[in-house]
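Repro:
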Amino acid sequence: MSLNGKLEDVSLGDVMQFIHLGRRTGTLSLVHGNREAEIGFHRGQIVSAWAPGSKRLAELLVSNGLVDPGVMAKMIRTQSSESPRRSLGQVLISSGTLQFEDIRKAVEQQIEKTIYELVTWTAGSFEFALDELKPIDDIAMYPGDVIPKLNLNTQMVLLEATRILDEQSRPGGPPGEPTPPTVVEPGGRDEAAAEQDGQRFLGESISLSTVADTLDGFDVEIPLEPPDADLLPTATLRRLQIVSQERQIAERLEEIILPEVALVVRVPLREAGNRLPGEPTPTIVVLDMREGAHSVEDLLAIRRSRPRSSVIALIDSQEMTTRAFDAGAVAALPANPGAVAACFHSLIRNLPDADSGRGVGMRAGFARLRRVLADIRSGLLSATMALNLMHIISESVERAVLFLVRKDALTALGAFGFSTEGKPLAEVTRALRLSVNVENVLTRCIADGQPRTLNFDHAGLPAEFARIIGRPSNGQIVVFPVLGAERVISVVYTDNGPNSRAIEDIELLELATAQVGVAFENELLRRQIERQALTG
């Protein structure tokens, strides 16, 4: 799933709010004239930002006065002499030059400054590559780390970015440069003004209406239907990426694979799986694991940072074959260029089959999602939003049960479809209560807030619920947590019942539950405040 559009139609603040509220992971790439920038997100949180003029870690720490230039030069020489090379962050901390807290604060300040600069870009284009997140090698504390350990308050950064953009869009506002953040004292005049403007801490009008407005722009810009043939990326944009010290492997593959099919390129490990603008997905990487050239940990690092890449492992033992497959390789082959080329050709032949029909169905999916967002924007009651969510789910799956998460139990709130005995699930699940203290797929989703796709037989569903629901025909079930700001407020069990078709709209349904969850919790909080005001 890749979102793209023009900054003239959709502001950067709206795009970032959409990614944040949807808890998406990936890289947002921006182009403004001849300037390019990137913002990294992990589960909706900003974890990196780069723009023209952004300083690398060494420059940043020296310019902030945290490290003497001479000491930094020595640390860089130490890093350069190591094999394998540690990150600069590891070198600085292990030498006692800095604490990680010092590095973390400096990086957070640079990210904030970069974001406040980028929101002033009101022209250009953007593209969000889902599940493609580049490692931040400079500050990694462990080899292969992708996510830096930051404490950045993404929501506050986005609210401040929105304020900056609003000020600049007003007549007579300062052009180009962001203004310093406004400090709001509790109970002060600015706090009251913020409440009148709808920017109170609940954040309903900014967070939720902005999301709906964002999709209005996306509806025009996202290529939801198959583009004309002459607009498709040319075949030469696909690359076969080779990660190996042996040049002969790449050279031999270059002789076998025709240039109109793909370009064969050698890349370092840190760039493996990285997709260029317009390049087809998934990216295909050949990783040389013979004689310890690269390890299973290296393969895992590629899979963590580029989960949508396909890795072909070159191996020299049966033991390494098993370990490569366990780590997520799509193939494990000896270093035979003919076999590698045949595997690559097989992969790209089958890639269109995996994506067939997605473009046509995506427009209808976004239309269903926009109905939920329209309800959120209109301020309908939480029960109506939950009902509309179930209606959207009913267009993608045959059966579903919505459970409300309480302190001691999961309570069935609504359902559709039929039980194993042919009775409506809405009827047989009424007043059903399941313990939250028994481990199963439902309680695991509550614990970590992550959706799960798995086989019915491995889900460990509570016996009373398993008897009612029965095993679906294809065995596949998907459970979605409905997330509020800080907790899971409900979970949705789904399957296709007697239909053997696999559930296909998982990303869409996950995004819909995320949007409804925030609004649902805001509504509950609003009602709680009203009750306190009446009783106070």
